Amino acid sequence: MTKYPFGVNITLLPSINPPDYEGYARAAVEEGVKVFETAGNNPGPLIKFFKSHGCIVIHKCTTIRHAKSAERLGVDCLSIDGFECAGHPGEEDIGGIVLLARAAQELKVPYIASGGFADGRGLASALALGACGVNMGTRFMCTVESPIHQNIKDKIIASTERDTVHIFRTLHNTARVFKNAISEQVVALERRPGGAKFEDVRDLVSGQRGRLVYVNGDPDYGIWTAGIVMGLIKDCPTCEDLLRAIEKEAEEVIGELQTFRVTAKAKL
User: Fold this and answer.
1) Are residues 4 and 55 in contact, defined by beta-carbon separation less than 8 angstroms?
2) Cα–Cα distance between 191 and 194 in angstroms, integer?
3) Which domain of life is it from (predicted)?
4) Domain(s) of CATH 3.20.20.70: residues in the chain
5) Sign of the alpha-carbon torsion through 236, 240, 242, 245
6) DSSP one-letter code for 236
7) In what order do the strands lie in the sheet with 111-114?
8) CB contact at 8 A, 39 and 61
């Protein structure tokens, strides 16, 4: 469908029906895909497979120790996911500012900042912290081209940074999702004396049920991921307009900081 290169993400996480990760990897390589993002548990075998076929590998992680482990496995780039992110922020609750600054201290390969980015000010801050760029998930959900129901886009715009919740905390597989009737029910089950087993929440958190949220437009029908960056999202532009606005704002912010530096030096 496109003459341009594109990447494939393979995330190794616990699932009700685990997919054939190795089969997906082989099929993608056979089709000529050259860029992969890996994430989740024990990506070593996949990274080795991709590198043996001359592919570029970006690994997403939430701690510096995992980033350094992936670096040793030969990844070309890292995506550093802060606690602000949608989806799985890891179990150590480290925010992006410290995590990205630590990455600048420790890593030898380039890295991208993930979690909490939606505008040019965020991009400028990520660059200042040593990242080469930013990943955006929730922000791109709320664009004209995003193939999800308009009701969900409107819900993102109407929501704030307070409208997410963590589920699976007691199962040690924490996920940040939109705060709705279903996710709050899951949290309530986890808070019972003795906690909850996965079987107790299995039907509530079904991926099939969550996908129907994006199709039918009912934000309370199932579990769906969203980051606290919702607090920064106020419109639903085209991807082109969004990226142009982010670039313009980042340049303005960086320019203001340069002016501030010159002024500060003059006063000294």
Assistant:
1) no
2) 8
3) Eukaryota
4) 7-136
5) negative
6) -
7) 7-12, 35-40, 56-61, 77-81, 111-114, 134-135
8) yes
d(C-alpha 208, C-alpha 164), whole Å: 20
Half-sphere exposure of 249 (CA within 13 A, CB side): 14
H-helix or E-strand spanning residue 7: strand 7-12
Is-contact 248 120, C-beta < 8 A?
yes
Reduce the DSSP state of residue 248 to 3 states and report it. helix
Separation of CA 198 from chain center: 23
70 touches 93 (CB < 8 A): no
The domain defined by 7-136 carries CATH number 3.20.20.70: yes
Helices (H), 116-238: 120-128, 138-141, 150-158, 181-190, 198-201, 207-216
**DSSP single-letter state for residue 197:** -
Cα–Cα distance measured from residue 44 to residue 90, given in angstroms and rounded to the nearest whole number: 18
Q: Tokens for 5, please give them.
A: 């290169």
Tokens 């400028």 belong to residue: 124
Single-letter residue type at 113 = A
Half-sphere exposure of 117 (CA within 13 A, CB side): 29
Tell how strand 111-114 and strand 7-12 pair up: unpaired
Residue with tokens 């080795």: 48
| Beta bridge partners of residue 111, listed in sequence order | 78
Please answer whether residues 167 and 223 qualify as being in contact, where contact means their C-beta atoms are separated by less than 8 angstroms.
yes
